[in-house]
Amino acid sequence: MTTALRTDRYELTMIEAALASGRADRRCRFEVFTRRLPAGRRFGVVAGTGRLMDALADFRFDAATVEWLAREGVVNTATLDRLHDSAFSGSIEGYAEGELFFPNSPVLSVTGTFAEAVALETLALSTLNHDSAIASAAARMVAAADGSPLSEMGSRRTHEEAAIAAARAAHIAGFAATSNLAAGERWGVPTMGTAAHAFTLLHDSEEEAFRAQVAALGPGTTLLVDTYDVERGVETAVRVAGTELGAVRLDSGDLPQLVRQVREQLDSLGAVNTRITVTNDLDEYTIAALRGAPVDAFGVGTALVTGSGAPTAGFVYKLVAVEDAEAGGWRPVAKASAGKVSRGAAKRGRRLIGADGVARAELVIVDETRDGVPDAPVDRDDLREAGASIRDLTISYATDGDLDARYRGHDGVRHARAHHAAAIAELPAEGLRLGAGEPALPTVYQ
Amino acid sequence: MTTALRTDRYELTMIEAALASGRADRRCRFEVFTRRLPAGRRFGVVAGTGRLMDALADFRFDAATVEWLAREGVVNTATLDRLHDSAFSGSIEGYAEGELFFPNSPVLSVTGTFAEAVALETLALSTLNHDSAIASAAARMVAAADGSPLSEMGSRRTHEEAAIAAARAAHIAGFAATSNLAAGERWGVPTMGTAAHAFTLLHDSEEEAFRAQVAALGPGTTLLVDTYDVERGVETAVRVAGTELGAVRLDSGDLPQLVRQVREQLDSLGAVNTRITVTNDLDEYTIAALRGAPVDAFGVGTALVTGSGAPTAGFVYKLVAVEDAEAGGWRPVAKASAGKVSRGAAKRGRRLIGADGVARAELVIVDETRDGVPDAPVDRDDLREAGASIRDLTISYATDGDLDARYRGHDGVRHARAHHAAAIAELPAEGLRLGAGEPALPTVYQ
Question: What Gene Ontology molecular-function terms does this entry list (chains A, B) (predicted)?
Fold first, then answer.
């Protein structure tokens, strides 16, 4: 199925008008960045790039699409002729999926004709804004869980396709597993889950339900013990499954206190290896509040899939440079009126890493070279530090229309998850604090 | 493409365990409702039902799906045999799409075997939670705009498929149009859009850009006048397009003051019929703040597609009754432990309408009849009012596996939009206030 109509109408009317003015083939560079992080957030996590590559591979104005656009009168015949079966011939570079970002990090750039580059605005932003918002929230939850495994269980609280992308983004940011089967099938994310309250209510008693579940799934399963009374539920669970019961799950109640009571009860019943999983409307703050409690695993739903208060990453897609054939090079461009001011010119990202392995700054390399791409950083004395190193953040995703397949599919997810783990290990410790604060790294233009 | 894997893994493990315990074919009734509205909200709008019917028609465990589940070891062979190509044979009823809802309104119910009904939990909740969150926010924006047309322009700020559903939900709740072309193609929502800042920056001057756009799209187009300097932009726009210029768009700045200045300037230039469209990070509050200003149309993005602070509707899918073959009827069931308490038994909704045509109460009819479906309200004296009437809110979507096609496709959207307009016209005036408050109608069990 083509993804070509996942596009705002004005992208196509702009192409129509640019064809008429002779500017449609002018080479342009668009960049994706955010002017600021959500209030109080210290870093963001890039996600969605692999999905975007898949969508780009399927971005084609096929005959049926062109026919619909003609019937609706969206653009004229000349524009439809131009769009029909045209393929992207430009280049894309940007941050690796899983990488951290800060205000004005040049997360993605698209260089090509105006017509082909502007057409990708909506698709690129939809994908990156959604997935990065989820990954950014997920990374904070992972930090709050302090090593305990997290599962994503929010499919029911977001759009059914967004749910699959959310499970993928959370896994990249460190979640161990998801409840969503499609995320397992499509992206290779491990899936988990055993039973809901409905299963207990289906049976004529909690004991009948537990016996049924243990008979089918074995004593290593997780029994949900809060349908009626938690203390009786735990007692019944251990009586039915034995002391080798895998886990009990708590989905309601005052968790810090309840978890301690359940741990004591399990231990007193001899179920000392039985784990406790909690899933009661958790977010990064309630996870952190359970740090001292004997919780073995967390399941997170609503807060994760809605970005924990920041459901979109705030990325914009801005024209930053146009080719100037007469002057023989590129010219930076930017909106100049009140508010929403952008910085023109092509940019690339580098991270300054101290001798101790901890990141010091987000360097945005701006160089208005003839080919529109910055190629050399200008060193700044105030950033010099013995033993410091530079990590290039900008990689190539497509060159002259050839998409790099490495970042797609299951492999892309594995790669992104590993990349994220390495990038977050470089973050200064205060960057992982949940309290509101400034970005963990300053963005420095060079 | 099948939608069967848009399902949480535990739905399938519950089916496996229920097959083993002999309870998988027990007839069950699940209901979708929310315990509360988002903080301060006075009503919600049901949306997504038509999309859910489409997804149900494609919900099938086909050979490829079963093979993947087997390979992953999600459930055993007996369960896979049961799922393979099984078709939903149950019944679905619920509120019409576009209808208003309140705490505990029985928005949707699914009656069938445990196995077939529990399998739909995730898909039903994903669809209804997302679309209803967007429609609920959209309805507040429509009220705030006080008759001025609104366009949905938020595709870039949400998942690319969620964007299409959001455009559909907003249209049902009264938005006139969307920027999203796929929403036009798939759901018949009118599409709109002309140009972005990139189009101006592509050209060597604002005047060159405006001339190109007017040449291609005619003087009736909308010119974006805030790329450099608004006053000069408006002057150039009218000089280029003439006084028949369709509209100018403002996407930044201090809107209430700016809009008045632009209106005066347009009038002084003779462009008295040129409309003003504003699109600067609007939500229901900033729209309301522009009520006195000469704004002709609003474009809303981020706030709409993220539910304006409430990105999910809070619907849950709960088992409320099970068939009790021995007792020869149905038995209400409900979770009983601390927090998240539900009310068992089958329910239907009715709205009490006063003689003046204004709604008075949300009636939830609870009747534990032998077939699991309430059939007669119990009148309450305190709700008696001369000339009052009752409107049934619960309609049939599927009977014994037959899905009613009337609520699907473009027709379904048109029907839902009309239904919403009629339902909102019944709401007490204070229900449309933006300030935080109690639900506009009390929910009364009968």
Answer: nicotinate phosphoribosyltransferase activity; nicotinate-nucleotide diphosphorylase (carboxylating) activity
CATH superfamily, domain B194-295, is Aldolase class I (3.20.20.70)
Say what the pLDDT of residue B206 is: 97
Q: Which fold has domain B9-134+310-347+392-439?
A: nicotinate phosphoribosyltransferase (3.20.140)
Does the pLDDT value for residue A376 go beyond 60?
no
Q: Do domains A9-134+310-445 and A194-295 have the same CATH topology?
A: no
- Considering the entire predicted model, what is its pTM? 0.97
Domain extents in chain B = 9-134+310-347+392-439, 194-295
Residue type, A145: A
Asked if the model's pLDDT at residue A136 lies above 60, the reply is yes
A3-17 pLDDT, tens per residue? 999 999 999 999 999
Chain A, window 163-202: residues with a beta carbon less than 8 angstroms from a chain B beta carbon: 163-165, 179-182, 184-185, 191-199, 201-202
| Contact status of A74 with chain B (Cβ, < 8 Å) | yes
Contact status of B149 with chain A (Cβ, < 8 Å): no
